[in-house]
Amino acid sequence: MTWDRARELIIDDISKLGIGSELDSDARFAKRAGCSVPTVKRAMADLARRGFVIRRRGRRTISSDRTTVVSGTDFSFSHSAKDTHGHALITQLIEKSCRLPNLTPATEFETRAHDRLGLRRNQPFFVITRRRILDGSPRVIHRSYLNPTHYPASFLASHDFESESLLEILEAYGLRVHSRETRIRAGLPTDTECELLGIEKEPVLNVEQSSYAVSATDQLVTAEYLHATYSRWEYIVSDRR
Known about the structure:
- The chain has 241 residues and is an alpha+beta fold.
- The protein folds into 2 domains: 2-63, Winged helix-like DNA-binding domain superfamily/Winged helix DNA-binding domain (Arc Repressor Mutant, subunit A), CATH 1.10.10.10; 72-230, Chorismate lyase-like (Chorismate lyase, 3-Layer(aba) Sandwich).
- It is built from 8 helices and 8 strands, in the order H-H-H-E-E-H-E-H-E-E-H-H-E-H-E-E.
- Strands 3-4-5-8-7-6 form a 6-stranded antiparallel β-sheet.
- Mean pLDDT is 84; it is low at 67-75.
C-alpha cells in the first residue's frame, strides 16, 4: 500500500501544481508517504510510463507538459459494446444521486472513491449506477462516482444517463480524458448484485477504475471513479511480437 500512497501523493501534487511544474524530490515524497526512496522511484517510473511525469537525470521531475489526450469513445463501454463488438445494449438507470459514501463492508469501495476524487469528509459525490444488458442478458453493474465541483448544480437533472455516454458528457464539461487505471479482482456478488444480474452466488469480476483527465485549467484530475461488477465475463489478451 505504500507504493499506492506514494503514487497518490504524486498525482495529487500534479493536480494542485498543474502541468509542467517541478515536483518534490524522491526523498521528500518518501518521507511524506512513509516509505522508502526505491518505492517512490517505482511509483515515478510507472507514472512516467503513463505520461504523467517527465524524469530527467540530474534534474527535478516535472509533471508532463506533453499530455496525451484521447477521445472518450476510446474508453466508452457503450461504444465498445455496440460499435466495436456489435452487441445490442440496453442501459437501465438504478441510482442518480448526490450523497455521502455508504459506510458498510459491502460498499467499502465508496470510501476509496471518495478519497480518490479528492473530496473532504463532509463533501458528497455524484453517484450514477447503471445496469448494462447485453443481448437481452443483464451482465454488468456500473457505479460511477464524480466530484460535483467539476459540474453545475443542474448536472444530474440535465442528462439522460440511460442513453448518453458518460465519458462524452464529461468531455462536454471540459474534462479531456488522459488515461485510466484499472484493477480487476474475482469475488462473490452481494445479494443485491445477484438480484440485478439474475445470478446465484457465483464468482463475478469486480473492477475498480480511476479515469484521469485534464481540466479546462490544465490540471490533472480524477474525472471518474468506477466500481463495476461483471457477470459471466472474460477478458482475452492478445500479444503480438
